[in-house]
Specification:
Shape: globular
Number of domains: 2
Distance between the termini: 17 Å
CATH superfamily of the largest domain: Glycogen Phosphorylase B
Strand order of the largest sheet: 3-2-1-4-5-6-7
Oligomer: single chain
CATH topology of the largest domain: Rossmann fold
Radius of gyration: 21 Å
Order of helices and strands: EHEHEHEHEHEHEHEEEHHEHEHEHEHEHH
Helix content: 40-55%
Strand content: 5-15%
Bound molecules: uridine-diphosphate-N-acetylglucosamine, uridine-5'-diphosphate
CATH architecture of the largest domain: 3-Layer(aba) Sandwich
Length: about 375
Amino acid sequence: MLGIITGTRPEIIKMFPIMKQLEKEKIDYKYIHTGQHYDSRLSSRFFDELDIKYPDYSINLDKSNNYHRQIIEIKNKIGKILKNEKFSSVLVQGDTNSTLGAALAAYEANIFIYHVEAGLRCFDKYMQEEINRINVDRISDVLFAPTEDSLHNLVNENVKGKIFVVGNTIMDAIRITTNKHPGKMNGLEQVRSGLRINQNGHEHYVLITIHRAENLENKEFLFNLFTSLKTSGLSYVFPIHPHTLKQFKNYNMVYLLESGDIKVIPPTGYYEFLKLVKDADFVITDSGGLQEEITSDLINKYAIILRPNTERPESIRSGHSVLLKDFNIENLIAEIKTTYKKMKIKETQIFTPTSPYGSGDSSKQIVDIIKMLHSEHIPANK
Ligand code: UD1
Ligand code: UDP
């Protein structure tokens, strides 16, 4: 049996095209969700919206655990599930604590590991995600690298598994979503009121998302960031991650979110979010997935990345993003002003016709490779 394991919002979104492809090819799999993201707005809403099956196994995690204890807890609990069913292989995605916990469980149980989105490196070993992805790559049997950059990182590290460059399944997720459900992409409707209107009668806003632990742990950074936004003269739409909201409450800084020019909304579904990105003037973010999504020809946006480094340099090279390496109010305001001017000129300009993350057929390539390596997954009637 093949196992698909997710734990957080981006893992569900990026695994969903693979699940759809497996179903299309009538290949059986069991789905395990670790419950790292337990809030329904970051988990079950996507099972419903993307029409994937509810997990065969859902885990309850101790919410008081630190990162290291969380990884061990995931490893132990997934380990028990892997013993119950006869799994021959598992797919894990990305770089979260769930990805590493699940991969360690499979490794201990001597189960074949496929790592989707392997080889990303920002070379910042203080970042938990960097530690997670390095370790998952080390113990995986097959590494699905999205780009040549990620392939080179893996080759440089002499990983033992087989490497295949297949693009990123996020491109498949965008393609499936925009092709199948264009009518559902009505994100702007709910946030329309209160946004600034230009001479053509169109709303203008900058989309902002922020959730990285490194940014949320820095009270001064958050204070300066939101003070800068308030004084920038632009409107913002801000779907807020529950972790981010918790930090604003902890810091007694919720008042910073109550400015008329910053429209704070709960985390949105996928259709809505893609529409919000597409309709934005530009994006300010520290999200990994969003750095990839903006390069899709179906989205094509520019982003200021609120990080000193990134494991997604392709999106900078393709002209879709810039790193705000040195964060301070002056730098941010200057970058926002430059970007705003650039976007006015570039309003209809395509940066690059194809995304560095592929053309949306990664899930098919992945399933073909799974069938090639594990012939037991090919249904008998095929
Ligand atoms: C995790 C991943 C990060 C990924 C992000 C996607 C790790 C170390 N981090 O960070 O790489 O980019 O998911 O969104 O794996 N919380 C809730 N509701 C939830 C889950 C978490 O309120 O459903 C709050 C809790 O206070 C929790 C805090 O967020 O302590 C951090 O949770 P964590 O699991 O580290 O998740 P993210 O910060 O979302
Ligand atoms: N996303 C969403 N709703 C939101 C915010 C993000 O559906 O309100 C999607 C987004 O399109 C992307 C994924 O969630 O596919 C990114 O998740 P996140 O930024 O939490 O994690 P990261 O990619 O940084 O690991």
